């Protein structure tokens, strides 16, 4: 079982004896990139059924059939924060999605803000990036990637649920004071909000700070790129209050 190094995310039921047909991309990866053939073993997983060992029973150009033999890991909850972020240019947003998946984000929520420069997103590409990162890092779940929404709409729909931490260079209490205190309170998985290049507009920050579920967090004296700030916030949350 330990020799099965390839992990693939699949949708649908996984269980002993189930026959799983891989999609075209996965079949190409298995047969052409990894050069695996009949009787080779791979791992298949999803959040609902956990991780399973499968045997390749039929493989060829553009197709691959796998039969499930045994469970490797049962399904389990993988709670994590929701990363709320303003879309940035292609390479940077791909980086955010990949690394946020590795860092345990449960959801990725893009928002339009006053200074957001990017106006279009390829959600299919972003989901593909998240799936590949989940396959490589060993998690069972793939983060939910929401349709982008205006910041005002996201806040209006936030309700009285989890806390929302808004990260800014200048405003708020120091990070080292806020997150350890949040860890002691053991809140539900929160939202971590990062603005675009140039940051959130003053009026956006004013409106956010007036909300009872929002805490602003100062990120120190240096001006960080948006992608750096997003991943720094996630890493700090996981270190102080998450699953690290």
Number of strands: 13
The total count of helices amounts to 7
Beta-strand portion reads 25-35%
Percent of residues in helices comes to 25-40%
- Whole-number average pLDDT? 91
Question: Largest sheet at a glance?
Answer: 8 strands, parallel
Unreliable parts: none
From the alpha carbons, calculate the radius of gyration and give it in angstroms: 20 Å
Basic shape: elongated
What would you say this structure looks like, in words?
With 244 residues, the protein is α/β, with parallel strands linked by helices. The protein is 32% helix and 26% strand. It has seven helices and 13 strands. It has helices at residues 24-33, 90-102, 123-137, 151-156, 175-185, 202-209, 226-240; strands spanning 7-9, 19-21, 41-46, 50-60, 63-73, 82-85, 107-112, 144-145, 149-150, 164-168, 173-174, 191-194, 214-218. The strands form two sheets. Strands 6, 7, 8, 9, 10, 11, 12 and 13 form an eight-stranded parallel beta sheet that branches. Strands 1-3-4-5-2 form a five-stranded mixed beta sheet. Strand 6, helix 2 (90-102) and strand 7 form a beta-alpha-beta unit.
């Amino acid at each position: 079982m330990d020799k099965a190094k390839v992990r693939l995310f699949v949708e649908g039921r996984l269980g002993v004896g189930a026959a799983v047909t891989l999609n075209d991309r996965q079949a190409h990866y298995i047969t052409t990139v990894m050069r695996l053939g009949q009787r080779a073993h791979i791992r298949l997983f999803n959040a609902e059924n956990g991780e399973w060992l499968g045997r390749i029973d039929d493989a060829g150009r553009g197709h691959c059939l796998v039969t499930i033999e045994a469970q490797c890991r049962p399904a389990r909850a993988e709670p994590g924060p929701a990363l709320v972020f303003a879309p940035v240019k292609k390479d940077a947003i791909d980086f955010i999605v990949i690394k946020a998946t590795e860092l345990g984000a449960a959801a990725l929520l893009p928002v339009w803000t006053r200074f957001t420069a990017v106006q279009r997103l390829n959600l299919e590409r972003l989901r593909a990036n998240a799936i590949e990162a989940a396959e490589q890092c060993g998690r069972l779940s793939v983060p939910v990637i929401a349709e982008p929404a205006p910041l005002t709409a996201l806040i209006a729909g936030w309700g009285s649920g989890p806390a929302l931490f808004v990260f800014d260079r200048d405003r708020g209490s120091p990070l080292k004071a806020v997150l350890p205190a949040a860890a002691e309170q053991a809140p539900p998985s929160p939202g971590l909000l990062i603005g675009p290049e140039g940051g959130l507009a003053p009026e956006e920050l004013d409106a956010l700070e007036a909300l009872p579920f929002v805490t602003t967090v100062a990120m120190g004296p240096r001006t960080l790129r948006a992608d750096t700030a997003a991943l720094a916030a996630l890493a700090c949350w996981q270190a102080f209050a998450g699953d690290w």
